[in-house]
Amino acid sequence: MRTCWPGRTGCAPGSSTARCRRISARNCSSASNRIAGTDGVVAVRACAVAAADGGGEDGGTDPFAGLSDSFLNVRRDELLSRVAACWASGYSDRAVRYRMRRGVSPLSVSIAVGVQEMVPAERSFVAFTPGPPSTAATGA
To answer: Contact at 8 Å (CB) between 111 and 49?
Structure first.
């Protein structure tokens, strides 16, 4: 997975917003081209990145899975708007309320956005497995 996360663009504190947008756009377009070519489609996915204490999406104490958006079959001309929408979804009313209910500061979680190759599938599923430390069944 290649990321198009603004934090990885080389935009240093104090850089102009316009400069960072240009760098982010160029990096996202390059990642999309490498993954799917200029005419292919990609998946754009967001997740709440775990904090140093382990909190965050799929963290040990706060399962944020499903609170941020994903977009499938994204064309190159839609890429930047979908990356922005994914990032923004981490701060949606639903995500902020969830964090507040869990006692997590709404602004303490970073949002990462990844661009992945879109793989055609006939089926999809979610698998639940026992928790490794206890082998107790876990649920969603």
So the answer is: yes
For residue 58, give both structure tokens: 């799929």
Q: Spell out the SS3 assignment of the chain.
A: CEECCHHHCCCCCCCCHHHHHHHHHHHHHHHHHHHHCCCCCEEEEEEEECCCCCCCCCCCCCCCCCCCCEEEEECHHHHHHHHHHHHHHCCCHHHHHHHHHCCCCCCCCEEEEEEEECCCCCCCCCCCCECCCCCCECCC
CB of 82 closer than 8 Å to CB of 71: yes
29-66 pLDDT tens trace: 777 788 888 888 889 888 777 666 655 555 666 667 77
**Whole-angstrom distance, CA of residue 140 vs CA of residue 135:** 16
